[in-house]
């Protein structure tokens, strides 16, 4: 669930942001969930933001804009009609100790460098950074995939992250990949936690599945927790060879 920080830039359209900022402020300060007002609860559409100390309304607005711009598309692609109300808890980097303590309590361990995770099927947690808007879309995709299959969380990890990276549109730039990078490392390598490989390959793993087996195959794979033989009729070795060939073809280096 946790993952290292990603660096994907996220452009914010200023006019939309300003409009959102005003709509968020209309509801802020009405429903603090604790007597001292921390975290600050902000209701917006299907989301309930819990903004911890140091997180501004503008920070919340940027994340909300990204979620509003992507949530319906992701639900539609994964054929999820209904979502529970999603709680979006946000910590400031100036209170990193609180973030770390909350992660330890929720996950039983700390993934250092992680800036987002999903402790429950209806909650994402974010450590504020410039990529938080795009990271919130990644975490939202995880939450939608829970509705497709409640046991999909990191099971298997290669597919769990592939779905989130693909649905969030976080495509890697294949022009920067060396020849060594283009060698598929295998699903075992993509199941590791202290590795960027699940994120590096995830987008094209999902894209390759959809290109050959369609959305039906993609969803069958998610529902079967990555049973390649059962859902797609392909062995793991053949799948790895297919993905590598698919990526090499996209990169123009077959
Ligand atoms: Zn993830």
Task: Give a short summary of the structure.
With 254 residues, the protein is an alpha/beta fold. The protein has helices at residues 14-25, 57-77, 96-107, 132-148, 157-167, 187-190, 197-223, 228-232, 236-251, and strands at 40-44, 47-51, 86-91, 116-120, 123-127.
Can you walk me through this structure?
Helices cover 49% and strands 10% of the residues. By secondary structure, the protein is of the alpha/beta class. It has two domains: 135 residues, Collagenase ColT, N-terminal domain (Glutaredoxin, 3-Layer(aba) Sandwich), CATH 3.40.30.160; 95 residues, no CATH class. Helix 1 crosses helix 2 and helix 4 crosses helix 5.
Chain-wise SSE layout:
Blueprint: H1 14-25, E1 40-44, E2 47-51, H2 57-77, E3 86-91, H3 96-107, E4 116-120, E5 123-127, H4 132-148, H5 157-167, H6 187-190, H7 197-223, H8 228-232, H9 236-251
Parallel strand pairs: 2-3, 3-5
Antiparallel strand pairs: 1-2, 4-5
Helix pairs in contact: 1-2, 2-4, 4-5, 5-7, 7-9
Residues 3, 138, 142, 161, 164 line the site of zinc ion.
- Give the strand line-up of the largest sheet: 1-2-3-5-4
Cα Rg: 19 Å
The number of strands is 5
Q: Provide the list of bound ligands, each named once.
A: zinc ion
Q: Find the CATH superfamily of the largest domain.
A: Collagenase ColT, N-terminal domain
- Count of separate structural domains: 2
CATH architecture of the largest domain: 3-Layer(aba) Sandwich
Q: Which range best describes the helical content: under 10%, 10-25%, 25-40%, 40-55%, 55-70% or over 70%? A: 40-55%
């Amino acid at each position: 669930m946790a993952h290292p920080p990603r660096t994907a830039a996220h452009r914010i359209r200023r006019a939309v942001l300003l409009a959102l900022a005003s709509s968020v402020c209309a509801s802020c300060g009405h429903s603090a969930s604790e007597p001292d007002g921390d975290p600050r609860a902000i209701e917006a559409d299907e989301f309930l933001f819990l903004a911890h100390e140091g997180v501004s309304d503008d920070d919340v607005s940027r994340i909300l804009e990204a979620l509003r711009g992507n949530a319906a598309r992701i639900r539609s692609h994964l054929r999820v009609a209904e979502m529970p109300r999603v709680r979006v808890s946000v910590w400031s980097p100036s209170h990193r100790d609180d973030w770390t303590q909350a992660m330890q309590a929720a996950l039983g361990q700390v993934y250092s460098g992680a800036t987002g995770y999903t402790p429950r099927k209806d909650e994402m947690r974010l450590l504020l950074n410039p990529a938080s808007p795009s990271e919130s879309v990644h975490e939202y995709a995880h939450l939608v995939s829970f509705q497709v299959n409640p046991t999909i969380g990191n099971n298997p990890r290669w597919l769990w992250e592939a779905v989130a990276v693909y649905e969030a549109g976080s495509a890697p730039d294949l022009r920067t990949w060396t020849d060594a990078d283009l060698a598929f490392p295998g699903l075992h390598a993509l199941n590791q936690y202290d590795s960027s490989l699940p994120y590096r390959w995830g987008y094209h793993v999902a894209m390759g599945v959809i290109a050959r087996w369609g959305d039906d195959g993609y969803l069958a794979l998610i529902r079967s927790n990555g049973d390649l033989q059962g859902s797609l009729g392909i062995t793991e070795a053949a799948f790895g060879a297919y993905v590598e060939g698919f990526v090499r073809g996209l990169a123009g280096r077959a």
